[in-house]
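Researcher: Here's a chain I'd like modeled. Treat it as a single chain, no partners, no ligands.
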Amino acid sequence: MAKCNNCSAPLPANNNKCVYCGTRNDVDLNSKYDYSIIRKESDRLCPHCDKPLQIIDLNLKGSFLIERCGDCFGLFFDPGKIETLLESAVSNVFDSNWQHLDTINNDRYQGDKKVKYIKCPACHAFMSRVNFGYRSGVVIDRCTSHGIWLDSGEITHLMEWKKAGGQLLHDREKESETRK
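Model: Modeled as a single isolated chain. Structure tokens:
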């Protein structure tokens, strides 16, 4: 469980705002990646805060640039980059743990979260909402031309999903669909 950077109180899953002190926390990148801010303001705008995104480098075996909102800590990935990040962060998974997958999704399920269509940070057209992978429990916002937006906490959720074998299940599901 993540802890608040300000008061060290526990942060519930899918929540980056501390209920005790009100501080917003970067639950996806802080203490997980040795990242650096390349540019404080890009040309792209956060679809939630309407402020310029930051360009950050995650320094994954060389330069790996993504964009992040400095206020809500949402992340914007250019096409194909989210898969590269997941592959570099989680490897050597050989089996699927159904019980762990169910636990991850139950812990992170946000039944009270309103469905909201957001605009692409690059072209400002509404993005489509798509389930990422089989049984991941994460609905991503995707612009087919420019990339994927993840709200704060969702990349952590996807990494947990992949560690529990979710990517293996997804790959098997795609394989069985192509056989039909």
